[in-house]
Specification:
Chain A is built from five helices and eight strands. Chain A is of the alpha+beta class and 211 residues long. In chain A, the strands form two sheets. Chain A has a five-stranded antiparallel β-sheet. A three-stranded antiparallel β-sheet of chain A has the order 1-2-3. In chain A, strand 7 and strand 8 form a beta hairpin. The radius of gyration of chain A is 18 Å and the shape is globular. Chain A starts with 22 loop residues before the first helix and ends in a 12-residue tail after the last helix. Helix content of chain B is 30%, strand content 33%. The N and C termini of chain B lie far apart (74 Å). By secondary structure, chain B is an alpha+beta fold. In chain B, helix 1 runs parallel beside helix 3. Chain B folds into three domains: 66 residues; 88 residues, Nucleic acid-binding proteins (OB fold (Dihydrolipoamide Acetyltransferase, E2P), Beta Barrel); 125 residues, OB fold (Dihydrolipoamide Acetyltransferase, E2P) (Beta Barrel), CATH 2.40.50. Classes of the chains: A alpha+beta (211), B alpha+beta (325). Chains A and B meet through strand 7, strand 8, helix 3 and helix 5 of A and strand 8, strand 9, strand 12, helix 8 and helix 9 of B.
């Protein structure tokens, strides 16, 4: 948070882009991998439509933010950020002071943008759940939300089209195929419904026979 | 850069320009005294020793420097890879930047087909002004290095000749044209917001806790910038907003930022404000790509006039041919 120090990593170009995926797809991206055994090697979530994500950019409505810590413990915040397809769970603790400060001060509901790292955790029932560890949470205008939905639908469709070309198209698509199987149509449908929402168009009843 | 290299380049310059063999032990001794004992920057030390030698050998300054053009190597912008060499350059001034200090007369970017290099012309050198978009032969400039990036410094002895020919500036570092990028601003990096720059000589280096890496503890001068990351989901691009672009996008003047920092007794409040103001929003930026950075000349937030409904409908139509109820 200091504005005066400049780190030796300034301007490095190998920064991972923040991937765009709807909450529904992100929630299913439970397969994580690292390219080396080094603990600090980047950790990637495999999106079911066949790309890796080391960082996500998500925009949606912040509907709830609460401090889960019992009194006396360090603060630990959970936030629900909702897009047209589902919910991103965002957890911020002492190592995310900036995001935590934002969650303390924002009064839901409000459109927010979250830049964060994908993490997985197992709940008491043994289910693997996905969450975002935020680098930033900021209030944004509705236009940014609409922009994100259109962009995310576009990227999702592009991934879908590539994936549909079949096995061997890319190592990450093969990873996804192996981890989750071939059936990714729900993500394409989700993209379509999200677009329809922004376009303010009602889809026909039989929309599921698209393409 | 070592004392030995500086000394050798002085010896070579005397050998080449006026055919005089100077006493190399003496030269090295003098350079070393200035640099190691008196902590004088090497180009200053060099100047001082050359002046001493001119006096000592009774050489007319003009005679000495009149010869100098032929004594230097003509080096292409992209080939400059050592500091503190005296060289000649033929290049086009592709950009002039706002000098951050009164001691700088001009600062900007030179380009030829091999690449680009920053140049600085000091106020004290009193040189003719260079014009943007014009090509020049610059004789007797000194190379410098900072954080792995090279620049050339013009000086009193630099000979500037305007060239009528055009210089091809198409290279990997610099297309002479401005480039547009779109994306979400996903991060504002350390070193953004209200910063202080060293005002010693022509330095302009950003201070770290009041210290300049070259000049140590200095008072410095306030400046604003944003080092950000523009991300379109495929690529994360480092971008830099200079003072003007920062004022433009934030609506904050340097004065307002300085006041805010004074009130909070902390300069970091400015970067924090900028983060909550800008991060997570979409921008279209326009400006040259220099090295790994995309410099921002113009920046606009995408959203106010954009019909996302229409975009969404078009995508629906393209990909699904969706029947509309």
């Amino acid at each position: 948070m200091s504005s005066s120090a400049s780190s030796p990593n300034d301007g490095r170009t190998d920064r991972e882009p923040a991937k765009r995926a709807f909450a529904e797809e992100f929630a299913d991206a439970t397969e994580l991998f690292q390219e080396s055994d080094d603990e600090r090697a980047p950790k990637y979530a495999v999106l079911p439509t066949g790309q890796r994500a080391n960082r996500m950019f998500a925009v949606g409505a912040l509907l709830e933010a609460e401090n889960l810590a019992k009194s006396g413990d360090d603060e630990y915040w959970q936030a629900r950020v909702v897009d047209p397809t589902g919910t991103f769970f965002v957890y911020a603790g002492q190592y995310q002071p900036e995001a935590m400060a934002a969650l303390r001060s924002i009064e839901p509901p409000e459109y927010v943008a979250v830049v964060g790292k994908p993490r997985s955790y197992e709940n008491d029932n043994g289910e693997v759940l996905m969450s975002l560890t935020p680098e930033s949470i900021t209030v944004v205008p509705e236009a940014a939300r609409d922009h994100w939905v259109v962009e995310t639908a576009d990227h999702t469709i592009a991934r879908f089209d590539e994936f549909a070309e079949g096995p061997g198209i890319s190592p990450d698509a093969d990873r996804a195929r192996e981890a989750y199987g071939d059936d990714i149509e729900e993500y394409e449908v989700a993209a379509k419904e999200a677009l329809a929402q922004v376009a303010d168009i009602e889809l026909a009843e039989d929309e599921t026979d698209a393409e | 850069m070592s004392v030995t290299d500086t000394s050798q380049s002085i010896e070579e310059q005397f050998q080449n320009n006026v055919g005089i063999e100077v006493d190399s032990d003496e030269v090295e001794q003098r350079v070393s005294t200035l640099v190691d004992e008196y902590m004088v920057p090497e180009d200053e030390a060099r100047r001082s020793v050359v002046t001493y030698l001119l006096d000592e050998y009774d050489i007319e300054r003009d005679t000495f420097y009149a010869q100098s053009g032929s004594g230097n190597d003509l080096v292409a912008c992209g080939d400059i890879d050592k500091p503190e060499l005296w060289i000649d350059v033929r290049a086009e001034v592709v950009q002039l930047w706002e000098p951050k200090s009164d001691s700088i007369a001009q600062v900007g970017l030179l380009a030829d087909e091999s690449g680009t290099v920053k140049f600085v012309s000091w106020a004290t050198s009193d040189l003719p002004e260079l014009d943007e978009g014009e090509a020049y032969a610059l004789e007797n400039v000194v190379t410098d290095e900072f954080e792995g990036k090279y620049s050339v410094k013009l000086n009193k002895t630099t000979d500037i000749e305007h060239l009528d020919e055009e210089i091809n500036t198409d290279n990997d570092d610099y297309g002479s044209e401005s480039v547009t990028s779109e994306g979400a601003l996903v991060a504002i990096r350390p070193g953004s917001g209200l910063i202080k720059r060293c005002t010693r000589d022509d330095c302009t280096r950003v201070l770290n806790d009041g210290r300049c890496s070259e000049h140590g503890e200095v008072e410095g001068e306030f400046d604003m910038r944003i080092k950000g990351v523009l991300d379109d989901g495929q690529e994360a691009e480092p971008v830099i907003f200079d003072l003007e672009a920062t004022e433009d996008i934030t609506g904050w003047s340097l004065e307002k930022a300085t006041d805010a920092a004074m009130d909070a007794l902390d300069t970091s409040v400015v970067a924090d404000e900028f983060r909550s103001m800008l991060v997570g929003r979409y921008y279209e930026i326009d400006g040259p790509e220099i090295g790994e950075y995309h410099l921002v000349n113009d920046c606009e937030e995408i959203g106010e006039d954009v019909a996302f409904e229409a975009d969404a409908a078009r995508l629906l139509n393209e990909h699904f041919g969706a029947e509309i109820a």
